Amino acid sequence: MSTRQSPPISRLKCALGAAASLAIVLGGAVATPVLADESDETDSTIGTELYRPGYHYTPAKNWVNDPNGMVYYNGTYHLFYQHNPESKDWGNMSWGHATSTDLMNWEEQPLAIPQTFNDDGESIEDIFSGSVVVDKNNTAGFAKEGETALIAIYTSAYTDKHPKHAGKQAQSIAYSVDDGQTWTKYEGNPVSDRDSANYRDPKVFWYDDGEGNAYWVMVAVEATDHKIVMYKSSDLKDWEHLSDFGPHNAVGGVWECPDLFPVVADDGTTKWIMVLNLNPGSVAGGSGGQYFIGDFDGETFTAENIVEDGDLPEVTGDLIGDFGFESGTYGEWTIENLQGEPFGDAPAAGALNGQTEVSGFEGERLVNSFNGGDWGMGRMTSPSFELDTDYLTFKVGGGNLPYEEGTFGNEPPEGELLWNGFEPDGDNVSLEDFGWTMTGDFDGGVNPSDNGGNFAIGDWRINTNEGGPNADDNTGTMTSPEFEVTGNYISMLVGGGGRDDHSQLGVQVLADGDVVDSVTGPRDGHLNWEYLDVSDYVGQDVQLRIVDDVTEDWAHITVDHVVMGDVEPTRHAEGVAVNLLVEGEVVKSTSGNESEALEWVSWDVSEYAGQEAQIQIVDFQAEGWGHILADHFMKADSAAPKALESYDWLDWGPDYYAAVSYSNMGASDLAADGKQVMQSWMNNWLYAGVTPTDPWRSGFSLPREIGLTKVDGKYELTSTPVASVADYENTAKAYELPDGQKDLTEGVTAVEGISGDMLKIDLTLNVGDEGKAGIIVRAPEGAASTRAMQTASETDGTEIGYNASTGRVYVDRTRSGVTNFNGQFPSVHTMPVEKHDDGTVSMSIYVDRSSVELFTADDTRAMTHVIYPAAEDQSVLLFNEGGDASVEDLTITPMNASVYTSDDPGTDPSEPGTDPTDPGTDPTNGSSADPGNNPSEGSNAQPGGDMPNTGASVAGAVLAALLLTAAGVVLVARRRMNG
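-> structure tokens emitted (979 positions)
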């Protein structure tokens, strides 16, 4: 079966939200109070689902991304966030809301700020990311005597249905005078408009220089320009431009979710920190956050850690022939086109038509397979050359879609073509003409279809998205007439969505009505060859049945060119990559970095010394970052340093994005001594839309206290979980490794004294100069004894270690349970960490049911990963490979749950890992009546399927109408039914 995964979600905006909608006309202002759910009941399964975190916040159900408007007020921490109350897929962007008294035990609140609809029920404004401030001095004038207003400053992402600002982004405000429970959108919105489509993510704070100059400051982004724009205001309504910052350092993706705040260093010095979240182009690939340290004078931010091109480490080597492409031709390279002409007829001078800025290439030209857009596919192969140095070094960018071996073309296997490959054959045109029967939405639909999927053969194929009236909401079956099995295999091209349970979405072969084999799709628009084994049924009659019983998240399947024969099909190659060929075989391969900024990459080729080799640049992806950038191939004596590692990062892992700080933390005891508290979305846009959780998708990191320290004469941020995290450590059950077990023998050793899926691990290793050592968490029971002298790389679980040979801490999640939902998820991430003077390396690791957060290097390095292991995989192992290592200290402390605990009505977290089930009561249902029938129409909805709609309850809407009418307002509400 195919392991091909879904394409990345590329270039989605930082601020993505969800939708409710109670539109109330109030004296010209649009107020959006949100009513609490009528029911206090909470489904007893919430908190027990497979992968549900125990001490990280996730909403009961549906999609979340960026944290927004985080603020401390009146003893309560408020976490607002981008949310889709309709679905666990992105769309209907609004602000969700949760509250806590300690930043750990969170209670989900009703939807805070919903998207806006017009009188026809069409979405005209999505509510993207922003911030919340406490207007203590009532500068905006929204509070009455005795009240204090919380004011949200957010991005209005106007849809194409908006009558005035269609397609633009501007900044708006809303206010609350009841501790953030209900919000009123300001009638004068937007308050800051640059006539831009990429002006977003405002973070606002009060600035006072102590000399009589005090005002609000806003930092926001012009995302595609890699620029921070700064404004000031006395009342949060009228804004005056101050200055701009950028572009600087990492610019491989759009800049999003900025922040600016002061931090007092451990030496007493106050520095200002500018945070920029970047997508894609982070140090770990895809989404991430970088920071700048400097000074802010109330008008301009001046950074002291900007890295200019001349400051980057020098990369040396000898160019191979004209493999720098400066001649303006491809010379002796061989070009083979599969679809379109992706490489064109000559090297590119930079970005091509429809492409954002391409940077980082050497000289004036490079290989760029975006010719004609991502649609083109093909490959180019260099003339041969001798490998006579230890390294090959080159620059690469573009899509991060690892190469999968296969044929260049798309040739079907030998055999009998059934049903003419769904192409017209005389009077046989429709599937019914070929004798197929349809049920559900496919009855009377248009089948086959001439649309959907790359690598289809001919013009027609079966596509359940196109085969009925409801697109991805189509459900039903398509069943062939009986036919005789005359070969061992039924081969076919299969694309579209996939499910582990093929009876939900798949292709089945039936013998006497029973399913005897089945396949599902790859969660990708590319079709590739699959087969059904029918060798036991030769001479018997069977049927083929296509079943689609799902309605969200790649909820369709595509099938084409069914062949009966005795030969298994050969899959065609996939991915976008640069490959090294030795004797015609791929021995090294590197994909891009999901960025239009090229980065240096080095291959260690010492084992092939003296052999002839070729470079092959491949583009076998026709969508979703389906292009590759390459340049300047050199022979080198040493590996090239990476420019991205010269910049400063909040976190070196792949799953720490949109991190911003809490406002008003001077009143909190969780940000002592001039420090700040930050929290992030714990996911990555490379695969965020397909992570295997249900009925929610995504959550948030632990809140981190941010400090500042000096390392080798240079200030660096420190981050560590806030003090209240320790309140959930079960210290009474803490385990310490006995002295007699601290010497690490070669291989993998089980830690017998403790296991678990929620742990804090404090580990200090003594390491030599070679090899690697560390710990494996969430491993299967008995994993250490499955084979003699087993290595860590042969052991299931999440491997966390120190490689003494490279001087790097790393996390390897390639064997961390379920990894095949996206080709970019199984990965290894590393970061440079120097040993202490005594030769030790220390790290603190927080393990939850679906995440690992690592802190090391005296808290100057952090690395965050989401993982999806089996519920029963809770063993802890130690390992040592190729070096002399021992454990100085190891303490493992169980963590208690902080969310969805038994303190909440009807929940029981004691048995995590059950199958995901619908939690039933949705805290957003009934919270507001929604005026419209299609909230996604005209909105910036994520590609990949329609979103089901969830309406407010009639009783809630009626109650709202009565209450608001009594107050002299007019309620305008239209109920939407769940389809």
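The helical segments are 954-966.
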